[in-house]
Here is the input.
Amino acid sequence: MPIAPMTNAVGIDLGTSTIKLTSGDKSYRIPSVIGTPNPGWQGMSSDKSWLNNLIIEDAKGQEVYIGELARLQSEIRKPLASEGKMKSIQNSLLALKAILSLIMKSSYEQFVVATGVPIATGVNESKELSRGLKGTHEIKVRNDATGEAKQMKILIEQVFIAPEPYGTYWHTLKTSGVQTAVDSIIVDVGHGTTDILCMYKGNMMRAASGSLEEAVDSLTSALSRAIQEKAGKIIRPFDLMTAIEQGKKNILVGGKALDITSAMDQAVTSIADVIVDESNRLLNNLPPDAWIEKVIVCGGGAYIFGDYLKQAFFEANIVKNTNEVLQPTDAVMSNALGFEQIALTKLKK
Ligand SMILES: Nc1ncnc2c1ncn2[C@@H]1O[C@H](COP(=O)(O)OP(=O)(O)OP(=O)(O)O)[C@@H](O)[C@H]1O
Ligand SMILES: [Mg+2]
Here is the structure.
C-alpha cells in the first residue's frame, strides 16, 4: 500500500449508546460497546462489512469485539459509557482505534481528531483520553466474517475534546453562516440520555449544563408499560424502537393491531416537559445579562420530540419565537459533523 502524506480531519461523537464518526465522505455509526470474542462459523454471515465485523487486538494481544459484532455475538459486553459519562478510557480508545482503521486507505496515515464526550465526563477522564489518543499507534484488526486481517500504523497529531453538543453548536453556526457566538442552549436528545449545554458569549457554561435520563429510551419504556396495561402483553422497549422511528401509529400486539397514538402523545408530552423544566433550571445559573437567541435540538430524539419541544420552549418563554428553535438537517450526525469541522480548522493551522 502507498504511503499517504496527508492528514485526515476526523469528527467523533463518543455517545453512551452509539459512536459516530465522520471524515470527508465517510460516515459511520456503531453501538458504544465492546465485548469478549466468541468465535463462530466463519463465512456464514451475509453481512461481510468491516463495520459490522470488527475485531481489534488489545495491548496484550487479545482479540476484542467492537460495536455491532460485540452487541450481537459477545457473551460479555461492556458499554463504553453509562450514567451520562465515559466508563473505561482504555476500552473507548480501543473502539476509537478500530473505527479509525475503517477510514484508512493505506497502512500509515495521520489524523487530527476532534471528539465529543458525554457532558458528565470529568476533566481527568477527558485528559486521559486525549493523552491516550495522541501519538503513534499500531493497529491490528480482523474481519470476523471473512477472516481478513489488516495491520496499520497511525499518528494522531492533535486531539480536541469537548462535550458532545458543542459539535452541533459549531455545526449550526457554520452552516447558518452566523459569525458571532450567540447565547444558546443545545439540547441533545439521545437514546439513553439527554445532554444540555449552555453557551454564553462563546463559552461553554458548566454550571448551566447537565444531563438527564429522560430520552428516547424512556419513551419506549413508557409505551411498553402502557401496552402491558391495555393489552396485557409484554413488548420489550427495545422492540418498539423501529415502530417509533417509522412513525407507526398502529402496532401488532398478540396478533391484534393496537393504536398507540394516545399513549405516545402522553409519553412524548411528559418527557419533553421534563427536558424543558431541566433546561429552565439550568438557565437560572447563567449570568443575568445572558440572552438566549437560539435553542438547538439535536440527537435522534429530535425527530420524535422536536416539534413538541419547539412549542414548549416557546411557551416556557425561553425563546420569543418558535423559529428560534433550530434542528440540524442531520440531527443524529450533527455532533460528529461539527467536530469534523473543528478538526479541519486545526488542520489548517
Ligand atoms: N429518524 C428517526 N426518527 C425517530 N427516531 C429516531 C430517528 N433516528 C434515531 N432515532 C432514535 O433516536 C435514538 C438514537 O439517537 P442518537 O443517535 O442521537 O442517540 P445516541 O447518541 O446513541 O444516544 P446517547 O446520546 O444517549 O448516547 C434511538 O433511540 C433511535 O430510535
Ligand atoms: Mg448522543
Summary: The first strand starts at residue 7 and ends at 14. The pocket of magnesium ion (ligand 2) is lined by residues 15, 164, 188, 190, 299 (CB under 6 Å).
